[in-house]
Fold this sequence. Notes:
5 strands, alpha+beta, 1 helix, two-stranded antiparallel ribbon, binds zinc ion, three-stranded antiparallel β-sheet
Amino acid sequence: MNYYTCNACLFTFASDSMPTRCPDCGKLEVQTTEEKYGRTAVHTWPAVRPATLSEIDYHLKVKNEIDMEEGTAQEMEAQARICC
Ligand SMILES: [Zn+2]
């Protein structure tokens, strides 16, 4: 399993292979502009790139928090069913 990040929306996700399209915003590529010698140069990059270590770290931290919140919600729901 590898991790990828979208340059357009900064969505980080796990996938076996690098998709060409971001699964979140659907972008194929992003453009950046650079001012050079009085001209504007436009660079086009693939939207999806391999995630950096800090992005993977953050992704796992957020995912863990969401899993824990969902687990707590399910637990509370189960307790509510028992008592009522
Ligand atoms: Zn995206």
